[in-house]
Amino acid sequence: MNHISKLPQVQLSIFSKMTALANKHKAINLSQGFPNFKSDSALIDLVSHAMRSGYNQYAPMPGILALREAIANKLEFLYNSTYNSDTEITITSGATQAIYSIISAFIKQNDEVIIFKPAYDSYEPTTQLNGGIVMPIQLEAPNYKINWELVQQQINDNTKMMIINTPQNPSATIFSKQDMLQLQEITKGTDIIVLSDEVYEHIIFDNEKHQSICLFPDLKSRSFLVASFGKTFHNTGWKIGYCCAPKVLMEEFRKAHQFTVFSVNHPIQIALAEYLQEPNHYLKISQFYQNKRNLFTELLEGSRFKILPTQGTYFMLLDYSNITTEKDTDFAERLTIEHGIASIPLSVFNENNLDQNVLRFCFAKTDNTLKKATEILKKI
Fold first, then answer.
1. Which of 139, 187, 219, 352 is an S-S bond match for 144, by CB 3.0 to 4.6 Å?
2. Measured distance CA(14)–CA(354) in Å, rounded
3. Which residues fall within 8 angstroms of residue 259, CB to CB, at 6 or more apart?
4. What are the tens digits of pLDDT across the range 151-168?
5. Which intervals hold domain Aminotransferase class I/classII large (predicted)?
6. Is the pLDDT of residue 47 over 90?
């Protein structure tokens, strides 16, 4: 069969590659972003109860109303921002599906999409699949701050969308209030849609406040807010999230959503609707992960790695330039094969695979796992 690939440059994802390598060599896997500890047993019990109670058929296409109402209440409680649970909130099969459906619903041939690199790896290929053109803006280590004047220069009549991610994976940085105000001013009066990936909204440290897109009225009027229950409640394998947007945008989103997955896991929706009634289930997450970050930092003392600032997410970036001049992809593989610890090379998220001698490590692991991992890293 002869065919022309729509994604000729895309290969197996770095997450799949490094996890497979870790499994092959029985390495400690700090590469892929998933916890190795259990989800709350109370939530698991709620899912089991929903299954036994018969909620095992299709859920409504936009999600069950009780869960959408719980999300609306959560956003009002956290950000004093209102979304209509009937017309402005949709439950999705994880955040990645939400992102895919948003881009598919709005991006046409030659539409330009601005993304900030290093960027989560689904943004670019999804844009390309829909005929869009990625306009990357490369951020520099170690602080990964945005030059908003450069962003302004990048915008033109073909700019259809801008994708932001805060807290940001993989850089572990956050957007400040001033960043969001700059973004609001730049996009005001335009037809640019902002896709705000906020899956780590509850994993933010040092008493900083999450600057959600919905806190800024003009931004909210042109934006999708994307979130993930999997990241928040330690069950990434459940693949359940949601997105929020003004009615006029959500109507277009649902046209794509219904033909992508149609509906999402019914018993889990039932369980989450009840679980969200207790705000502490998500309010305590930041401190939980801050303790993990602090432990990982303390355990790394005395190593030759340089720790870059970790403001949010459950990832930490380590600069290894004091150890070797190897390419980050080569060093990541060697760490896995020779030393038994897997990480993610940051260059795969950068424009033109820019190598800044930085690796990403996931600290959403048990304390014992982190202790074993740092014992290895300190010997390198």
1. 139
2. 15
3. none
4. 999 999 999 999 999 999
5. 27-375
6. yes
